[in-house]
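An instance follows:
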Amino acid sequence: MTNRRGEPVAPKTVRNSWAALASFYRWRAEELEQVNPMKGVPKPQVQPPVIDPLDREELATLLKACDQTRLAQTVGRQRFAMKRDTALRDRAIIMTLLDTGLRATECTNLRVKDVELTSGKVYVHLGKGRKDRLVYLGKESRRILWRYLKTRGRFGENEPLFLSRRGGKARPRAIAEAFA
């Protein structure tokens, strides 16, 4: 199934479309005493698309992009890029997301006390399905996260793990915009 642009439709969209049609025709059959054309149409079994993991080059490029801003669009002078003050934080966020599979909201809800850098354990509270779970960070991710926390200076265990530029809790939308 494809959309108007010819792109594949998400499996959830296919299932939701089937459910809406089945519900409508079931109501129509009961209320208007007409034939239900969806009767006997099985629920679609759609395979989710395969997502290829990043290779080493792609990961290196992504992490390198944390260091500098995009090239400035200039008129009459040489284009330039500036160092980003959030480079360490952004690297730590990327590595945390890749190692743990957390969603942006789950990542921004982490507190300092939720991460054990020695073992790599990350306690996710009220994640998907409002359930707590345990995920792990790899050695490189722990090293980058430790460097980020060291640059922050003093912090309490109940403070957000990732801070915004203003020192408050980082927001999921800010993560999406930073890596768009």
